[in-house]
Amino acid sequence: MDLQSVQDLKGVLRSDFYHGYATAAAQIEGAWNKDGKGISIWDTFGHTPGKVSDGSTADDAVRSYEFYREDVALMKTYGVNAYRFSIAWSRIIPLGGCDDPVNEQGIQYYSSLIDELIRNGITPFATLFHWDIPQALEDRYGGMLNQNAYTPDFVRYARVCFERFGDRVKHWITYNEPGVYTLAGYAAGVHAPARSSFRERNAEGDSSTEPFIVAHTELVSHGYVSRMYREEFQPHQKGSIGITLHGNWSEPWDEEDPLDQAAAERAREFEISWFADPVYKTGDYPASMRAQLGDRLPRFTAEESKLVLGSSEFYGMNSYTTFFVKHKTTPPDINDHKGNVEIHDENRHGIPRGEESDTPWLRAAPEGFRKLLNWIYKRYQMPIYVTENGTTAKGEVAPTPDVLDDQFRIKFFEGYVGSALARAVKEDGVDIRSYFAWTFTDNWEWAAGYSDRFGCTFIDFESEEKKRYPKQSAYYLDKLFTHLIREA
Ligand code: PNW
């Protein structure tokens, strides 16, 4: 666990750099129906047989709802100065809607968590939406498929959060990964609300249209919330507001083939610029998407476009891996969302995209992360807040000494933070202001259940109290950031 490879990087990160862990309410809190909480679509999903690979639910998850004080104390021993968590909409407004009652017990929980963080010198970053829309809104009008009905409900929920927590929370994120929410939930149908064109998997849905409609709703409702915050709250609360987008690096399969270079750029646009161009660059979707999707891609009204462009005060970035991308010679499938490309694990020289983790899509590819930081910074010219990055590791099944000495994860962080992020700052001039590791403890990894362990803390899910065991990677990150961050 030495810092050999980063010796030359001492003090390269800003003295006010934020580092800590990111989590999501539905993955950690448990207490799914306690103290007045309403049901979210992920509660429904978990309780539907056949949806989650290990058959588990998030009813208890890691019980952070009860153990948040102990968790903040443990986090403090990990040396963090910030924590990114999400607020469960259905804890705040159990039925979700703009005329539905507020649940004071839910407010109380987040209020106490925020106070506990601040008391421990940890800056809270709050995400309003990390995929857990109240089930009642899905039932009432189809959730985000209905932009007109949905938007006032999201705006009112956000207003309650700003009113009740905005005196203490100065970093707001409206949506976590609007792209993964819509692609997994409405294109593949493997996440809640489980809709797609594939009838062997989902009873309803249309993968060729719904993902784009839902994305549009996310962008526009984000725009309304951002405007409201900036007009009504920011002048006295003095915080900032933005959105977090996911994105992987797309590397050409044959780096010398112009068709593969174009395919890789198109893949980046379909994955990232779909959201980032409207918000940071043009107020509209990329031309490559319009060319392939035509009228299946919604159009921004002039008012929406104005609202969305410039609506995020920073670039919230979640990134995990790299894929090789090869052009196709056949026309795009109606259900394609990637820009009509082939995705490969090896390039034309047979070089793999990275070392395997315990999660099939995720391989360790730090060079791709550095390229992506540069690509985003160049295209969008915004300060970047890395709001998630991390990995699973093979063989983490019990809290034995070898498992807790998680060398694979340590090496992952060494590559992604030590060489990629810190060198992007020092050598490439990219403006990066935070790094949140995904994630604090092992948790409920959505449709993968409890088997994919992303935590820097091992959880014994069999034990009543979900016993926590620190992994060495947590201490490594502490040492690494102490070295990289400039002393004030
Ligand atoms: C993120 N991909 O999801 C989410 O924000 C977390 O809630 C989740 O637990 C974490 O990453 C790990 O999966 C992603 O395929 C899911 O590129 C899939 C991808 C990226 C992010």
Automatic annotation (TrEMBL):
Catalytic reactions on record: Hydrolysis of terminal, non-reducing beta-D-glucosyl residues with release of beta-D-glucose
Top-rank EC class of the record's enzyme: hydrolase
PANTHER family the UniProt entry points to: GLYCOSYL HYDROLASE (PTHR10353), PUTATIVE (AFU_ORTHOLOGUE AFUA_3G12600)-RELATED (PTHR10353:SF134)
Organism: Penicillium canariense
Origin: domain of life: Eukaryota
Coiled-coil positions: none
Protein name: beta-glucosidase
Keyword hit for Hydrolase: yes
A GO biological process held by the record: cellulose catabolic process
Keyword vocabulary terms for this entry: Glycosidase, Hydrolase
Protein role: Plays an important role in cellulose degradation. Shows hydrolytic activity against several glycosidic compounds.
EC number, UniProt record: 3.2.1.21
GO MF annotation: an example: cellobiose glucosidase activity
Family membership: Belongs to the glycosyl hydrolase 1 family.
